[in-house]
Amino acid sequence: MSAVPAALVAGALAGYGIAVPVGAIGAYLVALAARTSFRIGACAALGVATADGVYALVAALGGSALGRVLQPVLAPLKWVSAAVLLVMAVRGAVNAIRQFRGHQAGRPARENVPDSASRAYLGLWGVTMLNPLTVVYFAALVLGGRAAAAPPGVPDQVAFVAAAFVASASWQLVLASSGALLGRVLTGPRGRCATGLASSILIAALAIRMLA
Prior knowledge:
Layout: H1 3-19, H2 24-35, H3 38-70, H4 74-104, H5 117-129, H6 132-144, H7 154-185, H8 189-211
Helix pairs in contact: 1-3, 1-7, 2-3, 2-7, 2-8, 3-5, 3-6, 3-7, 4-6, 4-8
């Protein structure tokens, strides 16, 4: 296999490798699309994929020296990421309960979710950039020194990064689509409250496990 196709395959594998396991960010993405719209969920999905693409670029360009630079910041990033996820979990639970009570009282409750595609994109991009799992994953690619993780030529590097982004984006869009479909099914206030609380509990559990 020539260099560019090999880099495409390596990039796709790297992108799906980090995207497919549904963790706290994936759970939040599904819940966000369920509570808003597919458009906002899709933009949030692209924000996650962009962060994965950034780290794929780091893996392609950085080499082992950059991997050593990343090592000291992994522990602080773990704490910051866990704190951000816990805040997301609490806000999601409070919002779900507030919306349900507002419906019972006959008054609309304000959704505490991104109200624009740009905010959804930037918010999920920022959270994913702080996700230590993403950092560790691509740092491992760099530190491993594999040819597939750090393609030698510029065309190979471009192919690797593009394939990683497309792979991640395709999976995140699947999650957003699932959330949007779920939102259409669970349109009642009890269903929306239940999904919001379930998502918050899952995110909180994953954040706590991250610190264990």
